[in-house]
Design a protein that fits this description.
Layout (H helix, E strand, L loop, with lengths): L3 E6 L7 H17 L4 E6 L1 H5 L6 H18 L7 E4 L4 H10 L5 H5 L2 H9 L8 H4 L1 H11 L4 E3 L5 H18 L7 E3 L4 H4 L24 H9 L20 H9 L3 H6 L6 H10 L4 H27 L2 H30 L7 H12 L1
Parallel strand pairs: 1-2, 2-3, 4-5
Helix pairs in contact: 3-15, 4-8, 4-16, 8-9, 11-15, 12-15
Length: 361
């Protein structure tokens, strides 16, 4: 069986380093591993509209930001098909049929949707489209017969929901759809990078994000102002590395070779952590090192971005061509789905013959 990747992001804001370590970096590795037969990366604008119905311009304007983020981290349109969700009408059609296979109570149990409803104060007025987006996400994944979905941890309930829909569909209509697997980052620090303020998650509204497109001076201000261990008041005080965002970021970004170049007092992160824990290592020194590490990681991303920013019409062309290719794939799956459901009336000469005989003997 072919190995196929499908994944994507909602275009509601520029992508940040949490997206990068949680999923983007991994997608580029997978892309370049040569292990996959097809790779689809989707800008999920239709899903973004499920809770932004009144702000379509925000979604519209963010599409190019996300596309630039994709290209600048190293997703290569020659290897990965980059496309826009709303341009694939087959996805909506699949969602409509899958809706019949899912109960309201099952959707209500989805923990990610639950917390999103809370965050948006939607409790009493959830848009139906938002409530059902896990079903549309199952359409996104199954339309491409994806075997592998590299995403952040918060997407786990959507993949589980997709697997259930696949099993239900196949048992009712016959083996048609492919059950996908989630692929999470193996580095625990990458699963959910906290904000620079120490809050559990990076979020635009909290203003605690480092964006992939941030210039060097912005990253410097953000890193030097990061929350650390609040009890580590003097350099000589022993400090905590757990729950300390500066060290969590180092866990996510640092490679041993960076020490020789930027902080030769230590050979590896563990030595630095041990010193911090014992006392005698100041926050500023750790932050300066983290800044060097992040800049090292972001430098090639910034350089590629600057190139693509000069070629915006070409970026739209990439998305246009990707959307055409993606639609062809989704259309193939949709016809298999309709055939399995036996709603392909006009392709079914058997049906026409039997009905004809019924009336005419
Ligand atoms: N829910 C994802 C997010 O919030 C976006 C998304 C939509 C997606 N459809 C998908 C991710 C299918 C993986 C597979 O970013």
């Amino acid at each position: 069986m072919s190995k196929i990747i499908l994944t994507g992001d909602r275009p509601t804001g520029k992508l940040h380093v949490g997206h990068y370590v949680g999923s983007l970096r991994n997608r580029v590795l997978l892309q370049n591993s040569g292990d996959f037969d097809e790779i689809y990366i989707m800008i999920a604008d239709a899903q973004a509209l499920t809770d932004n119905a009144e702000h379509p311009e925000k979604v519209r304007e963010t599409i190019i930001e996300v596309a630039l983020d994709y290209l600048s981290v190293g997703l290569d349109p020659a290897k990965s098909c980059l496309f826009i969700q709303s341009q694939i009408p087959e996805l909506t059609e699949l969602s409509f049929y899958y809706m019949n296979l899912v109960t309201v109570s099952r959707l209500q149990r989805n923990p990610t949707v639950k917390s999103e409803i809370q965050m948006r104060n939607f409790e009493t007025s959830i848009p139906v489209g938002f409530f059902t987006y896990p079903i549309s996400q199952a359409a996104d994944i199954t339309a491409f017969k994806a075997t592998t979905v590299p995403v952040g941890e918060d997407q786990e309930p959507m993949i589980e929901q997709t697997r259930e829909i696949v099993r239900k569909f196949n048992s009712v209509y016959g083996e048609t759809l492919v059950e996908p697997e989630i692929l999470l980052s193996s580095n625990k620090a990458c699963l959910r990078l906290p904000g620079t303020d120490g809050k559990a998650k990076m979020s635009k509204s909290l203003g605690n994000c480092i964006y992939l497109s941030d210039p060097e001076d912005a990253v410097k201000t953000k890193v030097m102002g990061m929350f650390t261990d609040p009890d580590h008041l003097k350099v000589s005080d022993p400090g905590k590395v757990e729950c300390n965002p500066v060290f969590i970021y180092l866990d996510a970004f640092c490679r041993d070779e960076y020490f020789a170049e930027y902080c030769p007092d230590y050979a590896c992160l563990q030595e630095m952590k041990d010193h911090y824990t014992r006392g005698g290592l100041g926050d500023v020194k750790v932050k300066r090192f983290l800044l060097a590490v992040i800049n090292e990681e972001l430098a090639p991303i910034r350089a590629r971005r600057a190139e693509f920013e000069k070629r915006i019409p070409e970026v739209y062309d990439i998305l246009h061509a990707g959307s055409a290719k993606a639609e062809a794939k989704a259309a193939g799956t949709l016809s298999e789905v309709k055939a399995a459901m036996r709603i392909n009336y006009f392709d079914d000469s058997e049906l026409i013959r039997i009905q004809s005989e019924k009336y005419n003997g």
